[in-house]
Amino acid sequence: MNLTLPGRASLAALLLSATALAEPPKLLLSEDFESTAVGAIPAGFTKTGEVAVVDDMAHSGKKSLRIEPAERGGRKITKQGPEIVALGGQHWGRLYYKVMLPYPAPVVPEGKTSGIIHSTLVSGQATSPLANDPIEVRMLGTILSSNGTFKYLYNVQPRKRPEFAIGAKTPVTPTEDWTLVEWSVDHATQSFRFFINGEEIKEMGFNKGEGRFEGAEIPAVFDNLSFGWTNYQPAAGAGFTAWFDDIALGKERIGPTPTAIAAKAK
Question: Where are the alpha helices (DSSP H) in 77-164?
């Protein structure tokens, strides 16, 4: 009996058709910036620092959110309200981000031979389930080294207690490509998962178990969620210029945008 296997193009088309037929996950928050005027931010968000919608760069459609360069500090948009409350302590998140090259170098402190820049791209303010105090949970962060590479990390910053972080082991060389980021948090199991371009970074993940908050501190509900760029150490030169697009949050894994799936199938 002879079996004819589909070619690469045919297989890609079959996979794309199966994806199209599957019922898409329900989104509790979705922002592609297409309905926002250039120079503004989406309705229902507040902003910190220099950040606004532009129409000269996009992952999909024609618009994205541009984060302007600064030596240090926050340039981000923040959302609070019923959409965030509806997420509770469990959600999946998805976005695409892109950074202008060259990356700025860390400023080397006096007396040192190297420096770092710790940045946060996605975070939420909440009450710690461990100490019942205010915390910032940073689902997407990076540590940039003087050698020009960076690593992703999960980070929790209490106001009056020491912070902690769980980082990836493999350094990443910056590119100007759009990067797909996905994350999952779950208060009930105190678990976290993290994906870059569809590949899970397993060493950043954890599953502490019910009621085991130490080293996780995933809250029962977030007060707000922020998207943008905050670097805590000074950057040499102008600083980071970045773009965000296709932000989505829901109760199930959302995956890439349909346009990204179609492009991959060609």
Answer: 82-87
